[in-house]
Specification:
mainly alpha, 488 residues, 22 helices, two-stranded antiparallel ribbon
Length: 488
C-alpha cells in the first residue's frame, strides 16, 4: 500500500513530479528575468573567439544540453570517450541524475538552433582538423534529431544540416583529406535508422540539391552521397527510391569526370543496389544495367595505364580499379533470379568484352577470365558435387548461352590474349559435359569445344593437343561413372 510513496512523502508520485516541474518552471522564469537576452546571444556569437581547447569543451556542453532538450540519449564525448552527462555523472560540476526527462512529448530545439549557429560561425575560422573533432560531437545530435519521432524536429535538423553542408562545401577539400565524407555522414545515418518515408524522401532530395549546388567541389563526399542513394534503393516507397535513381543517373551521365577514378566503385555500388532491388519495376532495373553499359563506354574512352604500347589497359592497380567493379557487377547479375535481368546482363558483359577486349593486355584478360567469367559457372561444379540434387533453373536457362558466349571469346582472342588459360576453359566445358543435373549442357559443351577446335586447332602445339585429349577422356569417364551410378 506504500508503493506509491516517495522518500516518506504522503503525496502520489505524479503529484510530486508536477510540483517539481512547476518549481523548475518558476525558477526558470526567475533566471530569465535576470538574464539579458542580448548577452545570452553573445555567448554563442562570441564562440569564434574561444581558443581551440575551449571551443571543444563549449560544443560538448552545448551538445549535452541539446540532447536533453530534444529528449534523446546523451552523446559520447568524442574527446574523452565518456558519455556526456549520463545518470550520476557531472558536467561542469553539476550532477546529472537522469539522461532523459520524464515528459517525452514536448522536445525543445533552442540549443539545436544555437548548435547550428555555432557551427555556422566557426566553420570558416577553425582549422580543418579541429573542425572535424567538433563536428564529430555535432553529427550525433543532427543524426539523432533527424530521426526524431517529432517530424517537425526531424525536418528542422535535416534542413539545417543541408544549409551547413552547402556552406561547408563552398571550400575545396584538401588532397588526401576526407572531411566532406565526415561532414555528410549524418545524412547516411538518418537514412539508415529512420523509419519515416517522408523524412527519407527529404534526405534524398536534400542530397540531390547539394549535388546540384556544389557538384564541382564534392570530393570525398561522393562516398557518402552514393551510400545514401544505395540505401534509398532498398526502400519500397517510390518517392524515396525514384529521385535517388535519377540522381545517380545524373551524376554518372553528366558528371563522369568528377567521380573517375577515385569514386567510380562507389557509383557502381549504388547502381548495383538498384539492379539488385527485386521490388523495383523491371524498367528501372534495365535502366540500371544501361547505366553500367554507359560506364563501360566511358571507361573505354579513358586513358589507360598500360606500359605496353600494344594495349591500353593492363592488370595494374589503376586500370583494375576502373574496370573490375563494372565487370564483376555484370557477372553477378548473370546469376540473378530474374531471367530477363540475367539475360540482359550476359549480353552487355559479352558485348563489352568482344568490343573492348583488344585494348586489354593478356594479363588483364587472364584475370577477367578467372575472376569475372568463370565464377559465373560455379553452379556447374556445385551441381556435380550434389549429384543431381541441385536446382537447375539457371543451368537449364542462362548457362548454355553463357558457355557459348565465353567460348566465342576464346575463339576471338585465343592467339593474342587467351592461350595461357585455354585448359581452364576446356576443364569448364568438361565439367559442363559431366553435369548430370542438366543433360542439355552435354550437347552445348561438345558444340563449344568442337567450334573452338575448328577455330584455333591449327595453332595448337603438340602438348596442348595432348592435354586436350587427356581432359576429354577424364570428362567422358566421369560422365559414364555418374550415369552408371544413377542407373541411367
Amino acid at each position: 500500500m506504500f508503493g506509491w510513496l516517495v522518500g516518506g512523502s504522503s503525496k502520489p508520485v505524479d503529484e510530486e513530479k508536477e510540483e517539481i516541474r512547476e518549481l523548475e518552471m518558476a525558477n526558470a522564469d526567475i533566471v530569465m528575468a535576470e538574464v539579458d537576452i542580448a548577452s545570452l546571444d553573445r555567448v554563442f556569437s562570441d564562440s569564434v573567439h574561444l581558443n581551440n581547447d575551449t571551443i571543444c569543451i563549449f560544443v560538448t556542453a552545448l551538445c549535452k544540453v541539446a540532447a536533453t532538450e530534444l529528449m534523446i540519449p546523451p552523446p559520447a564525448d568524442t574527446i574523452t570517450g565518456d558519455t556526456i552527462g549520463g545518470a550520476g555523472q557531472t558536467t561542469f560540476g553539476v550532477r546529472i541524475e537522469s539522461s532523459l526527462p520524464d515528459d517525452l512529448s514536448q522536445p525543445r530545439i533552442y540549443s539545436l538552433q544555437k548548435l547550428v549557429e555555432v557551427a555556422d560561425l566557426n566553420m570558416g575560422v577553425r582549422p580543418r582538423l579541429l573542425l572535424g573533432k567538433i563536428w564529430r560531437q555535432m553529427s550525433y545530435i543532427f543524426s539523432s534529431a533527424g530521426c526524431h519521432a517529432n517530424q517537425s524536429v526531424a525536418m528542422y535538423a535535416i534542413d539545417s544540416l543541408k544549409q551547413l553542408s552547402l556552406k561547408f562545401l563552398m571550400k575545396e577539400e584538401l588532397r588526401d583529406f576526407s572531411f566532406q565524407r565526415l561532414f555528410l555522414s549524418p545524412f547516411e545515418a538518418i537514412l539508415l535508422k529512420c523509419k519515416d518515408p517522408v523524412i527519407k524522401e527529404l534526405i534524398v532530395n536534400c542530397t540531390h540539391n547539394i549535388i546540384q549546388a556544389r557538384v564541382d567541389n564534392i570530393k570525398s563526399g561522393w562516398k557518402t552521397v552514393f551510400a545514401c542513394f544505395a540505401l534509398a534503393a532498398s526502400e519500397q516507397c517510390e518517392e524515396v527510391w525514384s529521385p535517388a535513381f535519377k540522381a545517380v543517373k545524373l551524376v554518372v551521365e553528366q558528371h563522369w569526370a568528377l567521380i573517375v577514378p577515385d569514386d567510380l566503385s562507389e557509383g557502381v555500388k549504388a547502381i548495383g543496389a538498384f539492379t539488385n532491388a527485386a521490388h523495383l519495376p523491371e524498367s528501372t532495373t534495365h535502366q540500371s544495367i544501361d547505366l553500367l553499359k554507359h560506364c563501360i563506354q566511358r571507361l573505354s574512352e579513358t586513358g589507360g595505364h598500360c606500359e605496353d604500347a600494344a594495349y591500353k589497359f593492363s592488370d595494374n592497380e589503376m586500370d583494375m580499379n576502373l574496370w573490375w567493379p563494372v565487370l564483376t557487377r555484370l557477372a553477378e547479375l548473370v546469376g540473378d533470379a530474374r531471367p530477363k535481368v540475367r539475360d540482359t546482363a550476359l549480353q552487355v558483359l559479352l558485348e563489352c568484352l568482344q568490343t573492348h577486349g583488344p585494348s586489354f593486355s593478356p594479363g588483364l584478360w587472364q584475370l577477367i577470365v578467372k575472376g569475372v567469367l568463370f565464377p559465373v559457372f560455379d553452379d556447374i561444379g556445385q551441381a556435380n558435387e550434389d549429384e543431381g540434387n541441385f536446382p537447375t533453373v539457371w543451368l537449364d536457362g542462362t548457362c548454355a548461352p553463357a558457355l557459348t558466349g565465353v567460348s566465342k571469346l576464346f575463339e576471338q582472342f585465343f592467339s593474342t590474349h587467351l592461350r595461357a588459360v585455354l585448359m581452364d576453359l576446356v576443364k569448364l566445358l568438361s565439367s559442363a559435359h559431366s553435369c548430370v543435373a542438366a543433360p542439355s549442357l552435354q550437347a552445348v559443351s561438345v558444340t563449344c569445344l568442337s567450334d573452338l577446335l575448328k577455330a584455333v586447332g591449327t595453332s595448337l602445339t603438340t602438348d596442348e593437343w595432348s592435354n586436350l585429349r587427356n581432359e576429354k577422356y577424364k570428362a567422358l569417364t566421369s560422365l559414364a561413372e555418374k550415369q552408371q551410378g544413377g542407373g541411367i
